[in-house]
Amino acid sequence: MSGYGKLQIGNVTLDNNIILGPMAGVSDLPFRLLCREMGAGLVCMEMVSAKAITYKNKNTNMLMEIHEDEHPVSLQLFGSEPEIMQQAVEMIKDRPYDILDVNMGCPVPKVVGNGEGSALMKNPELIEKIVKALCQVSDRPVTVKIRKGFTEASVNAVECALAAQEGGAAAVAVHGRTREQYYSGQADWSIIAQVKEALKIPVIGNGDVVDGPTAKRMFEETGCDGVMVARAAQGNPFLFREIKSYFETGETCPRPTSKEIYDTVIRHADLQLKYKGEYIGIREMRKHVSWYTVGMPGSAKFRNQINQMEDMDSLKKACGLLFCNEANQ
Ligand SMILES: Cc1cc2nc3c(=O)[nH]c(=O)nc-3n(C[C@H](O)[C@H](O)[C@H](O)COP(=O)(O)O)c2cc1C
Q1: 116 close to ligand 1 (CB < 6 Angstrom)
Q2: In angstroms, what is the span from residue 21 Cα to ligand 1's centroid?
Q3: Which end of the chain is less enclosed by CB atoms within 10 A, N or C?
Q4: What is the CATH number of the domain that holds 305?
């Protein structure tokens, strides 16, 4: 029976099976740390290019940094050449990631044009080859993240997932949209159910889970072993605590207070500054702060302000005012 609980992926045991999905430009070290603290069972890093690892690219190196309190954490690679991906995995074998994941879902033309990301779904044989090559050199579990298919006319998630399993994958995550759909329309959970039905290894469902009740529904409708949440966690790391509480008590727990959101924004900003410096850190925070404040009274006007913030002092001042007003309403 599937549902909320521990999840075994190869030799890694997750405390719980609610997972922060990989998001380029979002699931960086500070955000992952907050999500983990709030109870995410596993946090997935932003995708990094296997080729860039082999070139010792400096920016890629920064993306690959993790904090010791994040574990378990999954590093996601994108690439299409088994030998290069294998080489990248060998180069990072001393880094403490718990799981290595392969991106087979990215829809961006630049990536797809190189035969990477979701383009791999056009070639299940290559999927098997890549997974096999990585399993040969990795003592960590290798997982893959796929979509429903490349187009609606070529839905083949089951075939691709079976190829990954055959290659030695320890789990498969399935986003129930085609590449053609990008992030639009509704995710098709029936494809997740079909993959689950066909595989022996754990299947993680993904797409449109936004709270405890939707997570529960995904478990029930698909039989999946874990649920991955991405967009709903933006500006809302509290979501993991809320989902956990929902499964434990059957009730939706109260939203965080303005004070807690404010404190979290400041902690998030402090972490950004620590790891990226003030110039980049504050610019990165702009989008996070807009997400944290969605729906708050005065937040539309506030967003213009936040987009011009250049330093921590101005961020603290503006957020202080907004959250203080909210608390006094
Ligand atoms: C801004 C953004 C960046 C993303 N980056 C990645 C990525 O690097 N790797 C990946 O496999 N999926 C990536 N995704 C896809 C998500 O992991 C997830 O599959 C998708 O958003 C559907 O889940 P959701 O409905 O919970 O958001 C990204 C999505 C968004 C919105």
Answers
A1: no
A2: 6
A3: N
A4: 1.10.1200.80
Can you list the positions of beta strands (E) in the chain?
Answer: 7-9, 12-14, 18-20, 42-44, 48-49, 73-78, 99-104, 142-149, 171-178, 203-206, 226-229
Judge if the beta carbon of residue 175 lies within 6 A of ligand 1.
Answer: yes
| Ligand 1 binding pocket includes 20 (Cβ within 6 Å) | no
**Co-location of 215 and 323 in the same domain:** no
Quick check: is 224 catalytic?
no
Interval 192-216 mean pLDDT: 98
Q: Do 14 and 132 lie in a common domain?
A: yes
Model confidence over 44-101: pLDDT tens digits? 999 999 999 999 999 999 999 999 999 999 999 999 999 999 999 999 999 999 999 9
The last residue of one of the domains, among 199, 219, 249, is 249
Question: Which residue bears the tokens 């044989």?
Answer: 125
CATH of the domain at 226: 3.20.20.70
Q: Which of 101, 175, 191 to mutate to test the pocket of ligand 1 (most atoms within 8 A of CB)?
A: 175
Helix (H, G, I), strand (E, B) or coil at 151: coil
How do residues 9-49 score in pLDDT, each as one tens digit? 999 999 999 999 999 999 999 999 999 999 999 999 999 99
Where does the pLDDT of residue 301 fall: very low under 50, low under 70, confident under 90, or very high at 90 and above?
confident
